Amino acid sequence: MHPHLKEILFSREQIEEKVKELAKVVSNDYEGKYPLVVGILKGSAMFTTDLIKEMSIDLELDFMDVSSYGNATESSGEVRILMDLSTPAVGRDIILVEDIVDTGNTLKFLKGLLYERGAKSVTIISLLDKPDGRKVEIEADYYGFIVPDAFVVGYGIDYAEKYRSLPYIGIFNQEFL
Ligand code: IMP
């Protein structure tokens, strides 16, 4: 375990298994639909690429980069688009892939934006759900794991751009802030 972590919540093997499970369910639900899968950078980059490798249907991949945090461990509530889609959203069945839903601000903003742009449908898949952090009413359609109200890192998820490359997810030890 990385010395800056308090504990490991989900091992590499547990994540792999969960990703396969989610990919199967989503593939079934989107059979024949050619969805546009949108990974939200940077946190969900690893999850997005692992997920689509396990999906059995044809799909298109794109990414958006948004920021709501700066380098703090508390959400600012303000969402900024740092990099937009290169694919038009109009008429598409979109699957937004997120790493973690905390306050819900990011997903509420993105879902609204994509519908404004004429998406046919927008569903959300998030690897992690932190229900205690929720400040706005939004839920993902598919979740991997529930996490406690603590700051987690690993498997793409960072603190101040660190720890993304860890293959497992754990609780960050705030002594190393
Ligand atoms: P929300 O807009 O508050 O729901 O936050 C969503 C984004 O905040 C996620 O995509 C993460 O980038 C970040 N975030 C929320 N909780 C954590 C955490 O525990 N560790 C690292 N990043 C987090």
The spatial strand order of the largest sheet comes to 4-3-2-5-6-7
Percentage of residues in strands: 25-35%
Overall outline: globular
Helix amount, in percent? 10-25%
> What small molecules are bound in this structure?
inosinic acid
- Indicate the low-confidence ranges by residue numbers: none
Overall average residue pLDDT: 94
- Structure summary, number of beta strands: 9
- Rg, rounded, reads 16 Å
Main structural class: alpha/beta
Give the structure's gist in a few sentences.
The protein is of the alpha/beta class and 177 residues long.
Topology:
Blueprint: E1 5-10, H1 12-29, E2 36-41, H2 45-54, E3 60-67, E4 80-83, E5 93-101, H3 105-116, E6 121-129, E7 142-146, E8 152-153, E9 169-172
Helix pairs in contact: 1-2
The structure holds inosinic acid.
Inosinic acid (IMP) binds at residues 43, 68-69, 75, 98-106, 130, 151-153, 157.
Structural account:
- The structure is a single chain.
- The chain has helices spanning 12-29, 45-54, 105-116, and strands at residues 5-10, 36-41, 60-67, 80-83, 93-101, 121-129, 142-146, 152-153, 169-172.
- With 177 residues, it is of the alpha/beta class.
- Helix 2 links the parallel strand 2 and strand 3 (60-67).
- Helix 1 (12-29) crosses helix 2.
- The two termini are 18 Å apart.
- The relative contact order is 0.21.
- Inosinic acid (IMP) binds next to strand 5, helix 3 and strand 8.
Q: What are its keywords?
A:
177 residues, alpha/beta, 6-stranded mixed sheet, 3-stranded antiparallel sheet, 3 helices, 23% helix, binds inosinic acid
